[in-house]
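Lecture notes, unit on binding sites. The following record was shown on slide 14. It pairs a sequence with adenosine-5'-diphosphate.
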Amino acid sequence: MIEAVDVVKVYRRGKTEVRALNGVSLSVPRGQFLSIRGSSGSGKSTMLNLLGALDVPTSGTLRIEGKEISRFPDDELSQFRRDRLGFIFQFFNLLPTLTALENVILPELLSGKHRDALEPKAKLLLEQFGLKGRGDHRPDELSGGEMQRVAVARALLSEPALLLADEPTGNLDSKTGTEVLRLIREATRERQLTVVMVTHDPKAAEVGDRLVRLQDGNRAGDDLLRAAA
Ligand code: ADP
Ligand code: MG
């Protein structure tokens, strides 16, 4: 599903250079739930942004589903992102003026799908995620755990092949975080999704089938935690 070969990312700001990734190679089979763990500044978000086609590597190659996204032009990248990828973020990234249901369907609306076709599917997802009757609530009427579950529904509505999660429990207490992880785990297993989740939290990282550690932009460890389902 993912083939990263010798991926380097250097950020330049004026005269300073930050080498965020130092030649990372990584191969992730379809259906695997990969956790990437590392301390703050180790390059986790950089790696995830590259996998999510939100940024391009300085050098190295990145293939997803056999497509070399590191060579895609911008318009193909955004199309690929919309069709094949789902994202979950630490701060949920819900739009405050929209209801939960509207937040869930927004990305698909923007890619030209019809509201009438999206709403029943979105409602079903919210219901499956324990948010029945919450579809017309706005984010400020929801708890952190509920907001993240809305974000998971939004990420899954387009039926992506790859789910990318950046510190999905970073803004949740530990009990709620564990619940959200279980939800992500179950929902992605059912759909046979490939998942890459980055986190600084050792306990959260354990949810994965496999754990890769990042240290100062280098891959520092790679452990199989359980056989993929
Ligand atoms: P993590 O997510 O593991 O905390 P990041 O991938 O965000 O780490 O950052 C890795 C390194 O790259 C850090 O030293 C960070 O300061 C630097 N960095 C990240 N994004 C940028 C950017 N847009 N411009 C300059 N430096 C950056
Ligand atoms: Mg980060």
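Take-home: The longest strand covers residues 16-28.
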